[in-house]
Amino acid sequence: MIIRxxxxxxxxxxxxxxxxxxxxxxxxxxxxxxGAAGLAFAPSALAGMEPAQEVPARFASMTSELDExxxxxxxxxxxxxxxxxxxxxxxxxxNSAPFRPKPWTVTIDGHVNKPGDYALEDLxxxxxxxxxxxxxxxxxxxxxxxxxxxxxxxxxINKVEPTGNAKFVRMxxxxxxxQMVGQRAxxxxxxWPYVEGLRMDEAMNPLTLLxxxxxxxxxxxxxxxxxRLVTPWKYGFKGVKSITRISxxxxxxxxxxQVQNSREYGFFAxxxxxxxxxxxxxxxxxxxxxxRRIPTMMFNGYAEEVQSMYAGxxxxxxx
Length: 319
Prior knowledge:
By secondary structure, this protein is α+β, with helices and mostly antiparallel strands. The protein has a domain at 100-310: Alpha-Beta Complex (Sulfite Oxidase, Chain A, domain 2), CATH 3.90.420.10. It is built from six helices and 16 strands. The strands form four sheets. Strands 7, 8, 11, 12, 13, 15 and 16 form a seven-stranded mixed beta sheet that branches. Strands 6-5-14-9-10 form a five-stranded mixed beta sheet. A two-stranded antiparallel sheet has the order 1-2. The longest helix has 8 residues, at 153-160.
């Protein structure tokens, strides 16, 4: 089901990137093929990926408002940050085949009236699932336009009934070193489990999504199967993947990248082109599949929907 409330920041797909447009680790290759905007196949370009799937036809006519084309399925599934499977962009697609995302249980705990271990299928009903096209902006100055499938985090929050003491939502990734080669690395790449968090109002914002799929299909392992966070006005590292625990807490959680490098990564991680990362500019970005850099938009283009949550905050300090 597609539920659309048109807003100025919605992504337009009036011109759809053909499915054979792809990126490899050394260069961007842009191609074109007649008729590719209709039915297309999601290729299994890398060893260990699942067999090819048919991309649903609805993505050929999906509309939104900023006139940006979708990135191809291959862009979305072969160029990923997911350190549990390695630090290079191609590592997650190459290394994630041993991971088993089904069956899946999410522990809900903390200041909540309905704690417990919930099967994934019990977290949302089919009627709550929807397609959403969001821009993903990564701190390394690259970006994509992705058609996610999932349900609002607010729906889960309402279901489990947090108490008045719940000020933040803390989320963590599964730890399975036997299936996740990056978690076996020595010295460790990061402190596991990977931890992320949102303020309660951010978690309840209508844009905030718990994604279970991409391009109308279940999330591939390399994209965070079976459940990941999508907060489109924040940098991509806020998108915690393979979520196995959601805790409602009173104090601001310390997220993984704050522990790793607090000078470069803050809790809020809102896209702000006026704050430069110490190692690269944030004012411009490169959309995968294109060579020309484009200006980065405040809050990744979602200012109308989210800026009121940060009124009075120093956004150069609270990065």
